[in-house]
């Protein structure tokens, strides 16, 4: 793969076998391991207490459950240790904690989904590992930016294909392939973030230059912003044709934030806000499903048994939970429709109380903090923008759905990253996490916090190169 | 770009601060208001899907029990009342949409196992392999005594209450009209709503436990209280003598007071008490004076809700006492239990019990013990003195006066107990003064026996009874036989039992009751 980089290494046999020791990397991995064990213990304890609360019995498979959980997390940890040992040590444990809390709640709400979610958890960890192994240099991603653009666009539009797309609860965001249903939009957001980071990294000066004058406005050359306008168009398509307000808001925020950070021009933020307000107003006047959402947000009690039922029940659940919650397994979160999905935060607020719900919010704040720290530390524009994009996805997605559940913003149906039930969401967020960890490791290496030892594939190529050199040498001497 | 990234961090942080504030708003700020909203079924639903333990009588009969519903039912458990309407006034009912009453309400936490003690014990049981944490409530009431009370009332509206003078334990408390909780507890919402609405609209308030949630004009039974106050105040002694007269004009009026049926009545205290003359007690009330009379009735617990361990007890009343000094005729009339005086049937049993118990009035209780799922005692009711309205000396005098009523007075017709067990009683016939129906009255009797070693105090009230030209609806004639039946049943009949009864073998969900109070 890296045919230009590999030959520049001065290769010694020792380099290939031994990895230079790095105290900083070691301490980060120790932190990660410790936190992972804690996350696993919290999950195991919550699992036990919840079962006690619902059935008054210690779950029979608790030892197996904790063993598998530990095994999975250990697996992820070992891979990070092998291929990204300089990365931030808090991201994986935070995700594991959220994932664990979510899994406990899903199990409590629906036994059947619990089994499926367990399977998806396996796939998600596998995807995490695979992403870390495949993407060994963050710069590799930039090279395939257009591939990511087209596959992102393809995935986004896939549910609109007749016979393939499936409508569920009014939103056409599902694709059904035989027995597997998935939400391609969950992956599209990661792909489009990669494309944007790469595109903007290359052309940020050109876009920021804004030489094209339209009246009083100074805009970038049309050809430079064309892909961005296209991406915005996708967001509108998603909103209008797939009726998925949450994803559309998420895409839109992602684009605007990345434009703003890349160009350093606050005007994009304002322009984005204006465009969003316009689009929102337009869709509010045009679409009844948007009007229903807005009316439910303003006063759900106007239709308490039908449209407003879900949000009212969520709020009653939260109030019932109060400060300390009803106790794990002792609430009645099943009263909220879709509690395992979009409304899982209400279920957590009910049974874990303000304290538990705040812990979940805190975990997201810490993930956002860690993600943006990665963006600050790295010196490469592409990596900066990618870190910003990925972090924005998690941070905004979580706050949109939590805000919807607790009636801060109109409800838009998207998943709570790592917590909600859903394979696509879980897998895509673990891929996103792996990319953040890869970015974190890359920046640590460039900051010389640890020796930038070659990646396994580079080592493999170096070894082959060395063998060829030695063979040539032997031939020469022979 | 780093500046923008820092600003982005601040922006996202601000989002989460807003979320945190909103979370506080719902979970702390508006918690109580939201919890109390009428369409918020969280709390009740949680209760409803929890298994509840049984309510059992002192003699081991299950009066309320939960059983799991078949899979797919709306709720996980159903609640049944095997004794039908017999204990409805005491157990109350437990419904999803219409709340719960009486023991079901007061002891909900014990029944569902939510008390701290049960939770802590339940935790220990989990580790040792036990399961479930429901509790059992054991009533002080006896199934056999309750059946006897129901049988004796025989459909007449009114109440029979039996308590133990020494402890305050309620052994029977049955009222007509009543209701059968089975008819609506497990019914669908609309059906249950219809039945409950109908019950609410039925005259006589069947949903109320009349014995402690309603009050009625007491008539002459109130003379026990007036006499007690007069004796305590020195306004009367056993030697007091009252003129033999038909009419007496109290101060501040020209309107005379008459005896029952306008008869000629007088003599010493024992005589006027046994014959239940009205004029002597009107005179005593006026003699004691408004302030001391009001203070005296308060000492008997009148004006305070009864200290029973069930929800929403009502209080007896001496009527409006604001300007009593200017209305001495009213005071005089109240002295023999007419006008605005109203007594709770249970309170009347407590008055008899106070006389029987040397002047100490015990707080009545319907629940004598609670048990956890392993039949270990959670709580036991210890008898407690509520009021001490009269001294032991006064109590002794009143005991003699009440024996006189039973032996040669207004109750002598009807209260003589089987086997010659000595009994003390006081009758009452409260004339309701209905202008269209002057013969409508409440027939009362209160009694305790054996008079020399009181075991049970009983009050009987038959409400809205009609006198006919042949038979006057007096307390002695109408209520007397019921009190006799009750006391006979308990002292010499099938209900007689050794002081410490051996616990009856309990049905499956009932834990064998361990140590008990009273007996």
Average pLDDT figure of chain B? 88
**Biggest β-sheet of chain B: count, sense, barrel?**
6 strands, mixed
Query: Uncertain runs of chain B with pLDDT below 50, 5 residues or more?
Result: 499-519
Overall pLDDT metric of chain A: 83
Looking at the structure, what is the overall shape of chain A? globular
Query: What count of structural domains of chain A?
Result: 1
Count of distinct strands of chain B: 17
Report the sheet with the most strands of chain A, covering strand number, pairing sense and barrel closure: 3 strands, antiparallel
| Distance linking N and C termini of chain B | 86 Å
What CATH architecture of the domain at 219-366 and 383-491 in chain B do you see?
Answer: 3-Layer(aba) Sandwich
Radius of gyration of chain A: 24 Å
Question: Which geometry of chain B do the CA atoms define?
Answer: elongated
Order of helices and strands of chain A: HHHHHHHEEEHEEHHHHHHHHH
Percent strand of chain A equals under 5%
User: Please, how many helices of chain A?
Assistant: 17
Strand content of chain B: 15-25%
User: Structural class of the helices, strands and pairings of chain B?
Assistant: alpha+beta
Tell me the greatest interface. A-B, 52 and 39 residues
Overall helicity of chain B: 25-40%
The amount of helix of chain A comes to: over 70%
Report how far apart the termini of chain A are: 32 Å
Furnish the topology, listing elements before pairings:
The complex is a heterodimer of chains A (478) and B (519).
Chain A: H1 13-17, H2 23-55, H3 62-83, H4 91-109, H5 111-134, H6 138-143, H7 145-157, E1 165-168, E2 171-177, E3 180-182, H8 184-209, E4 212-214, E5 217-219, H9 222-241, H10 245-263, H11 266-286, H12 288-298, H13 309-321, H14 344-377, H15 381-405, H16 423-446, H17 456-477
Antiparallel strand pairs in A: 1-2, 2-3, 4-5
Chain B: H1 2-29, H2 31-35, H3 42-48, E1 55-56, E2 62-68, E3 77-80, H4 88-91, H5 102-106, H6 108-112, H7 116-127, E4 136-139, H8 143-153, E5 158-163, E6 170-176, H9 189-201, H10 210-213, H11 223-233, E7 241-245, E8 247-248, E9 257-258, E10 265-268, H12 269-275, H13 279-288, H14 290-299, H15 328-334, H16 345-356, E11 361-362, E12 367-371, E13 377-380, E14 385-387, H17 392-408, E15 424-431, E16 440-449, E17 456-466, H18 475-478, H19 480-491
Parallel strand pairs in B: 1-4
Antiparallel strand pairs in B: 1-2, 2-3, 4-12, 5-6, 5-17, 7-10, 8-9, 11-14, 12-13, 15-16, 16-17
Helix pairs in contact in B: 8-19, 11-13, 11-14, 11-17, 12-17, 13-15
